[in-house]
Amino acid sequence: MSPSRQAAGQGPTANPTGSSLDRRRFLIVLGGAAAHAALAPHAAWSRKLGLPLPALQPWTLPADPPASALELARALVGAAILAPSNWNSQPWRMEVDGGSIRLLADPTRALPVTDPDRSGMLVSLGAALENMLVTMRAYGLRPTVRYFPAGDSRGPVAEVTWTGDEARRDRQLFAAIPNRRTNRRSYDGRGIFMQNRAALAAQMSEDLRLHWIGDRDQIRNVADLLQDATRAQVLDAASERERLAWMRFGDDQARERGDGVTVDDLELGGPARWFARRYFNPRSRFIGLGAGSAGKQAREAIGSSGALALLAAPRRTEFSCLTGGQAYERFALKATQLGIAHQPMNAAIEVERFRPDLARSFGAPGEHPLMLVRLGHAKRPRPSLRRAVALVASFRNT
Q1: Backbone φ, ψ for residue 31 (5° rounding)
Q2: Distance (Å, rounded) from C-alpha 183 to C-alpha 381?
Q3: Dist CA 276 CA 297 (whole Å)
Q4: What gap in Å lies between CA 329 and CA 77, rounded to an integer?
Q5: Residue 102 β-bridge partners
């Protein structure tokens, strides 16, 4: 990769009517109200016990650009925070300095066993970056991104600057940011219309590949592969110990930390739902049962999908992982806009020996898989928790 890359933020232009814009504003506010209602009982319980409440980021964004530079920067960082990440680890930090935002990895939130080459972390950082860019364009700003070379894990991966007085674009994707969810529920098996596939594929950049599977027999083959990969991942003691650290046993624990994934949100079935602390503890005698349960759940989840999508790059570089995360987030926001449920399922990517078989399943031998996504239709789940702007960003000269 060259020492740095610069690109002006570009994206599809939307020209909504005034009424549709009002509706989107209403949906943004409604999403925030739903998140508040979901958290209120736990906040009340913490207050009753006299415990300090951790700072959390609401699933809302200002519909219009804030007037002050500080509030604008806070809104941009707030949009970035609502991006997805592996196990909701939120591995990002941001440095705001006047009219620029530097995006950095937070090494304390890495998954070095599951993600030893930082590919997953970079995908998450790319998703956070894209949320910022979408928000800037929706606010009538023109972003410019500088990508930094690989090698310094402590330095920024990207820096964004912006200018004003642009036409407001990407407003439909912007409206989808507070409504996007990773949906782990069982899907109803309905397929994805070809025009919707085309709309999703249009979110990809030219240097990435998007492969589809919609045939039921091929979906079953991938389901078998995911079952094996998931079982192998759970039986790897070091890997499972790392993931167990991000599992939250109840809403109160999740509320205290502001990250991770609760047992309820994992949509576990059968005994695994009630005995997750033992089923997924690598020191437990029940770990074999946990591995079998997780593998079966992965197989059934893939099997219920209407379609599968594989996001891949010709080869793995830090830049392709970062831009792959950007492309995935646009893909996820477009799916949200279209009412399509989606969930990344990356066990066959994280367990390296399964990657070649996964790529071949999609007719993409030799390519580097970045994200495997199942798509379909299901009731939207509640939002996961996010740490607040004050916990992930520093501000200077604003």
Answers
A1: -60, -40
A2: 6
A3: 13
A4: 15
A5: 95, 159
**Which residue shows structure tokens 């996007």?**
180
pLDDT of residue 16: 37
Q: Which DSSP string corresponds to 231-251?
A: HHHHH-HHHHHHHHTTEESSH
Read off the pLDDT of residues 302-357 as tens digits, 9 standing for 90 and up.
999 999 999 999 999 999 999 999 999 999 999 999 999 999 999 999 999 999 99
The CA-atom distances, in angstroms, between 352 and each of 116, 368, 384 are 11, 11, 28
> What is the per-residue pLDDT for 60?
97
| DSSP code per residue over 93-148 | EEEEETTEEEEEE-GGG--TTTSTTSHHHHHHHHHHHHHHHHHHHHTT-EEEEEEP
In this prediction, residue 46 carries a pLDDT of: 44
Task: List, in order of start, the domains of the chain with CATH numbers.
Answer: 5-182+383-396 (3.40.109), 194-376 (3.40.109.10)
Predicted TM-score (pTM) of the model is: 0.87
Positions in the chain whose pLDDT score sits under 50: 1-49
Beta-carbon count within 10 A of 395 CB: 18
Q: Strand 92-97 to strand 100-105: parallel, antiparallel, or no bridges (unpaired)?
A: antiparallel
**What pLDDT shows up at residue 268?**
85
pLDDT at 275: 80
Residues 232 and 23: beta-carbon distance below 8 Å: no
- Long-range residue pairs from 291-294, CB within 8 A, at least 24 positions apart, any chain: 291/230, 291/231, 291/234, 291/235, 292/231, 293/268, 293/269, 294/230, 294/231, 294/233, 294/234
Q: For residue 132, give Cα distances in angstroms to 53, 63, 127, 277, 328.
A: 27, 14, 9, 36, 14
Give pLDDT, residue 279: 85
Query: Phi and psi dihedrals of 30, rounded to 5?
Result: -60, -40
Render 149-188 in DSSP notation, one character per residue: PTT-TTSEEEEEEEE-------HHHHHHGGG-----SPP-
Cβ atoms of 319 and 150 within 8 Å: the answer is yes
Structure tokens belonging to residue 169: 């674009």
